[in-house]
Amino acid sequence: MKKVVVAHSWSRNMGDAAMLRTIVDIIHAISPDIKITALVSHPEYTVPRCRGIDARIEGWPWPVPQRERNIFDYAVFYPVIYASNMFSALLYRLLGARIFLLNRRFAGPLSSIFECDAFICPGGDFIGPKYFFHSTFGEIVMAMILGKRIIVCAQTIGPFRGAFDRGLASFVLNMADVVIVREGATAKHMMELGVRNVEVTSDLAFMFMAGGHWSRVRKRKVIICPKKISGDRKAYIGGISNLAKRLVDELGYEVEFLASDAYDSDFQSEIASTLGGRVRLAGEVFPPEEIARHMSEAEFVVSSRMHAIILATLSGTPFFAIGDSHKFEAILGSLCDDCTIGIEELDERGIDRILGAIKNGNAIAASIRKKFPQVLAKSMRNAEILKSKFREWGFADGR
Predict the structure, then answer these.
(1) Which residue, 86, 150, 370, 395, is the most exposed by fewest CB within 10 angstroms?
(2) Neighbours of 248 (CB within 10 A)
(3) How far is the C-alpha of 379 from the C-alpha of 206, rounded, in Å?
């Protein structure tokens, strides 16, 4: 029996949950005998929201950020943990012994990496300056020390600017047997960094069909998924508030805020509290299949969370994206022309564009239905590449 570790899923984001569910299903379709361990940020959050997933769920092999990190974290705490992890990996490779120093509380997930045959790192854009990419790189280096097969799967990576980060990214990513990226801009960046074995697909979540139990009746409702951004929050809140007011007061829509990431929940409540009852809150963060079903009841979805939009497209629900990175246009542009603006464009003119798209919702829905098969085929290349690699390594067909 072969063992595979699927690492670095952020439990509180249902886009990551959809990707995790999808990649586990892909692996078991290749060989039902493969034993999978998923390393996630909050196991207690993942288990009830990834119902029926055929994988053992464990935490990350390093501390999960709980607050804004300070100089002590960067200079002392995290380096000590990462160094301990590397040392434990080296001792396991050389001696076959599990020896933990200051990293004993991570013995479970570390042992999963020690014992696996392949290490797969899926995700949205964890490998980038906005997130804790050094931790992801640490896991890849550990897997290399241990002599594991390594796949980086369906990522938006970078862009890395400084010489140190660019050099580090090139060094680490070239350890992977294959780097699968989900849009052309990342593929170009990988070429600039000299990363080999790069394949271009599309987002894994497009393969997450979520059972296909969609509502047949759409309410006169628009679902908005605001995101707790790191930029000009005041302008963004003002734009979202004005959009909601105009939808209700001018067009007579019911408006609902829905969080696909628990990180956004309090932020959405903050905005809703200023709108005098115009907006309804969906409440808890639903599992990804429930989010997709919920969106199938609406006429339109406006979102700053890309995976919320991907879940909406599975039921053909028209959308408009308010994005904070190039990935929105790169990934979603193939489904709908002129359905994306940047968060800095959420002024009166931008709101007019969104309202125009909502009025044109039937045409956008028709575009999604027409173009989705091509996007899905591109996403399914993730499964084809994994299957090819697993066969090459002797992991497929129960071997």
Answers:
(1) 370
(2) 18
(3) 6
pTM score, two decimals? 0.92
CATH numbers and ranges of domains, the chain? 3-202 (3.40.50.11720), 211-372 (3.40.50.2000)
Specify whether the CB–CB gap between 321 and 307 falls below 8 A: no
Backbone conformation region of residue 197, classed left if phi is above 0, alpha if psi is from -120 to 50, else beta: left
At position 389, the amino acid (one-letter code) is K
pLDDT in tens, 225-241: 999 988 788 999 999 99
Output the six-digit token pair for 72.
């002590």
Q: Tell me the per-residue pLDDT of 30-58, one tens digit each, with 9 for 90 and over.
A: 999 999 999 999 999 999 999 889 999 99
Asked if residues 85 and 101 have their Cβ atoms less than 8 Å apart, the reply is no
Amino acid at 144: M
**Tokens linked to 211:** 């059972």
Q: Nearest Cα to 247, choosing from 357, 343, 328, 329?
A: 357
**DSSP letters of 88-147?**
HHHHHHHH-----STTGGGHHHHHHHHH-SEEEEE-SS-SSTTTTHHHHHHHHHHHHHTT
- Calculate the dihedral angle through the C-alpha atoms of 180, 391, 10, 145, rounding to the nearest 10 degrees: -90
| pLDDT single digits (tens) 49-100 | 998 899 999 999 988 876 666 676 666 788 899 999 999 999 999 999 999 9
Angle CA(140)–CA(143)–CA(149) in degrees, nearest 5? 100
pLDDT in tens, 321-357: 999 888 888 888 889 888 999 999 999 999 999 999 9
**For residues 54 and 31, what is the distance between their CA atoms, to the nearest angstrom?**
12
